[in-house]
Amino acid sequence: NAGVTQTPKFQVLKTGQSMTLQCAQDMNHEYMSWYRQDPGMGLRLIHYSVGAGITDQGEVPNGYNVSRSTTEDFPLRLLSAAPSQTSVYFCASSYSGSAYSYNEQFFGPGTRLTVL
Amino acid sequence: GESVGLHLPTLSVQEGDNSIINCAYSNSASDYFIWYKQESGKGPQFIIDIRSNMDKRQGQRVTVLLNKTVKHLSLQIAATQPGDSAVYFCAENRVTGNQFYFGTGTSLTVIP
Q1: N or C, where is chain A less crowded by C-beta within 10 Å?
Q2: What pLDDT, on the 0 to 100 scale, is given for residue A97?
């Protein structure tokens, strides 16, 4: 199993550009999520999905869109990039997002995004 | 707002000693906690978890303690090794949702 894969590994954007960060998992996990990690801070949840066709907002959703058309894929779209979105982005998946289920999260290697 | 925070941002220990990393949380509704290890340039890696109906859980060289009275949990690493050098995060999951909230992290450095 490849686990959780993310592409690209690095990306530089200009303010106002849009792009999509790709995330895929091959573990048949229902729950997928996107986090951003800024220096000196923990991971903050952007969006998450509990299954195909279902998405919801996390702590910091503004400026980002997601969709979940398949169990495997969970892309994150930056609509109009801003310097404040410079960060490291991690995608994660788990069997379930419920606190009552076994839900160890597996993280991808991250995408390092710089917005100029 | 609610937060999950760590008492110490950095920790240095001698190889072979035991390490203790602490984490405070403020939401008494949280009922599931996870410790993650993050090595430089990599994504977080699950270490151990604990549910609120437990006070202690042990894994291989790691133990997590949960004190719900003071909203505190700790990660103990026995016989710390150089490979344990990393940033450690605690995260909490709340019954009411499917969201995990992460602390800011503690950087552990193991001195050979």
Answers
A1: N
A2: 58
